[in-house]
Amino acid sequence: MKIRRKKQPKHINKLPLKERIGKVYERGKTTVGKHLWLELLAMVILALMAATVVFLVVSHFINRTDMGTNEYVTYTEGREYVQNQLLNMVQEINNLEVSDIGKNIDYTALEEAIQYEDEYRIEQLLGLNEEELNAGNNNRESALSALYTKLLELYHNNTWSKENVDQAITEYFTSRGMTKEILVEARIKEILDNALGDYFFYSDSVTYLVDGTGKIMYQDGVVDSLNLINAIQKTNNSEASGDSSKFVGIYPVTLNNEVYYLYNETAIEPFSHTVHTDLGNVLGFIAGAGLFILIIFRLTRDKVAYIEYLSECLGEISKGNLNYKIEVIGEDELAEVAQSITHMEKELKYQIEAQMQAEKSKNELVTNVAHDLRTPLTSIIGYIGLVKDGGFHDKEDQVKYLDIAYTKAEKLKVLIEDLFELTKFHQQAIKLKKEKISLSNLMNQLIEELMPLASDKNIEIETYIDSTGTTAEVDIQKMTRVFENLIENAIKYSPQGEAIYVELRAIGDKIYVAVSNAFENISPEEVSLFFERFYRADKSRNSMAGGSGLGLAIAKNIVELHGGEIGATINEDLISFKIGLPRT
Question: Distance between CA 220 and CA 241 in Å, rounded?
Answer without folding.
Answer: 32
